[in-house]
Write a structure and sequence with these properties.
alpha/beta; 4 strands; 39% helix
Length: 196
């Protein structure tokens, strides 16, 4: 005769294993995507890795840390040989700091084909950057990993984050607001957490 289960007892009082096969399956099912959202690796890419992508890196990294997400966030540029090693644009740093985000310790680097192997998701700030990424990646290019950042806010609209490089400070504030909204959507989507 099958032994009666002591459901009225606490786990410590019951005899036999605490978890049955169904419970183990259920836990495995719920955690099937755990590595994806818990250890997410995201790359932000613009032209020089000086204005837009450093802001995107700093904003998303800041939000992820505040929520306790162990994410790796980085940024790179597709046409930035003359900027490699430089700190973000002074106005990007200023606007970030005004919003309690510190990007002063970042330094520009070049986007490389190997980034498609290292990162789970790669966001381009504009359509021309996507073209550059495809050219640089060649056989390593993965369409499923790439998207325009603003598609997180406006799916399928393929809108660009404008490059504030040639403009004045107000343009950097506008770019910050755009990027922040997109980062909130990324947190919602991959962090399984609702933003305020």
């Amino acid at each position: 005769m099958r032994p009666r289960r002591d459901f009225h007892k606490t786990p410590g009082e019951r005899s036999g294993p605490i978890f049955g096969s169904f419970q183990i399956w259920a836990i495995s099912y719920l955690l099937r995507d755990y590595p994806r959202f818990a250890g997410m690796k995201i790359l932000m890419v613009c032209l020089g890795n000086i204005c837009r992508s450093p802001l995107a890196e700093g904003i998303l990294e800041s939000k992820a840390k505040k929520l306790g997400l162990s994410w790796e966030v980085d940024s790179a540029g597709t046409r930035n040989n003359y900027h490699i090693g430089e700190a973000p644009h002074p106005l990007s740093q200023k606007v970030a700091k005004l919003n309690s985000v510190d990007i002063s310790r970042q330094s520009a680097r070049a986007f490389v084909a190997e980034d498609f192997e290292r990162f789970d998701k790669i966001y381009a700030m504009s359509a021309d950057i996507l073209v550059h990424m495809k050219h640089i990646g060649r056989k390593k290019f993965e369409q499923s990993k790439t998207d325009l950042l603003l598609n997180e806010i406006y799916p399928g609209k393929n809108m660009d984050v404008p490059d504030p490089w040639y403009g004045e400070e107000p343009g950097y504030h506008q770019v910050f607001e755009m990027i922040e909204k997109a980062c909130d959507k990324i947190i919602e989507k991959y962090g399984y957490l609702k933003t305020a």
